[in-house]
Amino acid sequence: MVLSSPALGSADPQIRYVALGDSRAAGPYLDAGALLDGCSRSNLGYPAVVAQVLRPQSFTNVSCTGARTDHVTSVPQPTPTGPVPPQVEALAPDTTLVTLSIGGNDIGWSGLVSACYTSAPSVDANCRTDPAVASRMDAALGTLGAKVTATLGAIARRAPNARVLLVGHGGIFGARGCWPNIPTSDADAAFVSGFFTRMNRVLAGAAATSGAQFVDVTVGAEGHDACALPGNNFFEGRHSSSLARQLHPTESGMRHMARRVVDVLQRAG
Fold first, then answer.
1. CA angle at residue 87 from 100 to 234, to 5 degrees?
2. Cα–Cα distance, 25 to 23 (Å, whole number)
3. For 3-47, how does the pLDDT look when each residue is reduced to its tens digit (9 = 90+)?
């Protein structure tokens, strides 16, 4: 699917779009503006790309790097330039479209998968068979659904007429490791990829329970994980070869995520 937008000047008066979420939406380091913004919010993140395509009557992006579910719903988030209010305060009764990326910071996913990392190539941490790793992952995912469901409920109360899209996680890890960028064995890389599949099931379940729509960003991203060659990768690993932050979407990845959002909007529109 090729992203395209209507002719200039043809803003859609029916769309009032608000983007919420964490760094998967904010796009830290992708442009100079993100370096100066307290939330490291880039104009190259997927919300801005979606807005370029849809040309909404209004567009507000309050996504913020490091955000958790409570920063969306009720707790001001500290940033280097001062606290920012809970993100739902950007919503209004006339908001018609909301995208949300959230959950990764709630469960601390990078810490969960770090047990799979090795200090040298051709070493297998064998985290996939470690009961302690499995227990930590299970516990984290066990708490996530209720938090995301509550967040979606808060969004619905503030913007009762909005179509809400919950944008999923995953894509960084594929079927193989590539030390030191993804410093795992192939088997452990596949295990971590499976963890994100499970996380997406939790997110999809929360969306279904709340009347929101789930956007699976791993669809169409096969072969574009952090082990792909630079320029072909949608996500960076532990050593970024682009302006994107480590373990985050690249500019190409953000365009891919925007395509998935627009595709879901158009298919179920």
1. 35
2. 5
3. 644 444 567 889 999 999 999 999 998 988 877 889 999 999 999
Q: Tell which residue, 71, 89, 88, 69, has the closest CA to residue 79.
A: 71
Q: Which residues make Cβ contacts (< 8 Å) with residue 170, sequence separation at least 6?
A: 193, 196, 197, 199, 200, 217, 218
Q: How far apart are CA 117 and CA 195, in angstroms?
A: 15
- For the chain, the structural domain boundaries read 12-267
CA distance to 51, 145, 205, 263, 268, per residue, from 225 (Å): 25, 25, 25, 21, 27
User: What pLDDT shows up at residue 268?
Assistant: 61
Write the pLDDT tens digit of every residue in 214-260: 999 999 999 999 999 999 999 998 988 777 888 899 999 999 999 99
H runs (alpha helix) in the chain: 23-26, 32-36, 46-54, 69-73, 104-107, 109-113, 131-158, 186-210, 251-267
The predicted model scores a pTM of: 0.94
CB atoms within 10 A of CB 225: 25
Dihedrals φ, ψ of 24, to 5°?
Answer: -65, -25
What does 187-251 look like in DSSP terms, one character per residue? HHHHHHHHHHHHHHHHHHHHHHHHT-EEE-TTTT-TT-STTSPTTT-SB--SS-SSSSPTTSB-H
CATH of 12-267, one of 2.60.40.1120, 3.40.50.1110, 3.30.1300.10, 3.40.50.720: 3.40.50.1110
> What mean pLDDT comes out for the span 41-69?
97
DSSP-derived pairing of the beta strands 97-101 and 163-167: parallel
Residue that is written with structure tokens 């503030």 in the block: 158
